[in-house]
Write a structure and sequence with these properties.
Elements: E1 6-12, E2 16-24, E3 30-39, E4 43-44, E5 47-48, H1 51-69, E6 76-80, E7 86-95, E8 103-104, H2 107-122, E9 130-142, E10 145-148, E11 155-156, E12 158-169, H3 170-182, E13 187-192, H4 193-201, H5 204-209, E14 211-216, E15 221-227, E16 230-237, H6 241-252, H7 256-266, E17 279-282, E18 291-294, H8 295-320, E19 329-333, H9 342-350, E20 354-356, E21 364-365, H10 377-418
Parallel strand pairs: 1-6, 3-21, 6-13, 14-19, 19-20
Antiparallel strand pairs: 1-2, 2-3, 4-5, 7-12, 8-11, 9-10, 9-12, 14-15, 15-16, 17-18
Helix pairs in contact: 1-3, 4-10, 6-7, 6-8, 8-9
Length: about 425
């Protein structure tokens, strides 16, 4: 990649907007230049409810990252989530030849079979107002041979592709893009957040052996399953860390801000771990006097909601996927994953090993210390996703150039030999 080229990652969440500006350095590595965050106003569960407030929130985070970087944000890649997202697995099929001899598969054939899978989904009832944002191949089938990862240059009569399709509400996408454009910027591409996060918190071995990713955000919990180095299932639950905060505010008769502080500083996903006699002062609302409450009671509220998140996730996954295939275990990320004993509770419910997913920063240069937190997993993952796509596109362009040059040489040789025939 060209040294100095800018990539900007934007994580649009329910509670926060996070922006990272990075550039390609001379070693072709991404170097962090600027980080900006702002409160996410005008958005609820990924849906724009006030375009003016949402625009300002996004602009505030971008400007903060620009001020730190000393650079203008360019090439914006955006991560989204929300219960407007719909995912499904489908199959695309094409015939390669009508003759008696098999046909050698080209990249164009692969693109055509992926397009066929998209068209199969688009024509389904209920998908008219949805836009496809991902069509990720899982594996291919040539005639009766299954489990093929890359069919290019192989031969056959028919090609099928098992594909994971992710769709989003078309109006929601347009409104998000409009907010960014009103702020003075342009979107290059949009990614589903758990797919982006997986690039930051899961390694190749985990994706190969089978792994569950649960990203507990502010308004939603995003679920994804990976196996054989490809996504096999994704789903969005409309509950998240903000629900814990709201439960505490209502249950303890305190302000949302104080409830959020209690969750962060005192939150425990296993209330039984709190001593029975431990007490805590709960700030009153609007100047009312503080009251003492049992800390265990506070965390019974926290545990109830965390149990709901994990139990609902388990129910959906158990219905849709064979969890015996998950060898690597479960990885949690997102801000709420930092609640004490959240991994222990997850292990209890899923009956498998669980860990907190911190973003892998080893492939980044520059000031990365601030990003050593699960709440930045999505924005770091967006950077990696965009980087991989850009490198892949450049490789294809180079292959085409080399192929064209080789063809020109062959044609030139043919012309020379014609003179002697």
């Amino acid at each position: 990649m060209k040294s100095g080229q800018i990539i900007t990652a934007i994580d649009i969440g329910t509670t926060k907007i996070c922006v990272i500006i990075a550039t390609f350095n001379e070693e072709n590595k991404l170097e962090i230049k600027g980080i900006g965050t702002s409160r996410s106003d005008g958005l609820v569960n990924g849906i724009v409810v006030d375009i003016m407030k949402a625009t300002q929130s996004i602009k505030d985070a971008i400007v903060e990252s620009e001020n730190m970087a000393g650079l203008k944000a360019r090439n914006l890649y955006v991560g989204i989530a929300g219960n407007h997202i719909k995912s499904q697995n489908t199959i695309g099929r094409i015939s390669l030849t009508t003759g008696a001899d098999p046909c050698e598969i080209t990249q164009e054939h692969v693109e055509n079979v992926i397009t066929n899978s998209k068209n199969n989904v688009k024509i389904q009832q209920g998908n008219e107002r949805l836009e496809i944002i991902h069509a990720i191949h899982q594996y291919y089938k040539i005639d009766d041979q299954e489990g093929i990862l890359n069919p290019v240059s192989m031969s056959g009569f028919n090609l099928s592709a098992h594909v994971h399709i992710v769709m989003a509400d078309i109006n929601t996408l347009r409104n998000v893009k409009k907010c960014i454009e009103r702020a003075g910027y342009k979107v290059v591409d949009i990614y589903l957040e758990p797919i982006a996060s997986s690039n930051a918190v899961l390694n190749e071995v985990e994706k190969e052996l089978g792994s569950i990713l649960i990203d507990i955000g502010g308004g939603t919990t995003d679920i994804a399953v990976f196996f054989k180095n490809s996504i096999r299932f994704s789903f969005v639950l409309p509950i998240g860390g903000t629900d814990i905060t709201n439960d505490l505010a209502i249950g303890l008769h305190t302000s949302p801000q104080n409830a959020e502080n209690l969750k962060i500083n005192q939150g425990n996903s296993l209330a039984s771990q709190i001593p029975e006699d431990a007490l805590i002062d709960i700030e009153g609302i609007g100047g009312r006097e503080s009251k003492q409450k049992k800390l265990r009671y506070v965390n019974e509220i926290v545990e109830a909601r965390m149990r709901e998140i994990f139990e609902d996730s388990y129910k959906i996954l158990n219905e849709q996927y064979d969890l015996k295939m998950i060898t690597a275990g479960l990885t949690m990320t997102g801000g709420a994953s930092l609640l004490k004993n959240s991994d222990v509770l997850a292990e209890e419910i899923f009956n498998m090993s669980a860990k907190i997913g911190y973003p892998n920063l080893s492939d980044l240069a520059g000031p990365t210390e601030r990003l050593e937190n699960p709440k930045y997993a999505t924005s770091v993952g967006i950077l990696y996703y965009a980087y991989n796509e850009l490198v892949s596109k450049e490789s294809k362009v180079q292959s085409i150039k080399i192929g064209n040059s080789f063809t020109k040489i062959i044609n030139k040789i043919k012309e020379i030999f014609k003179e002697y025939i």
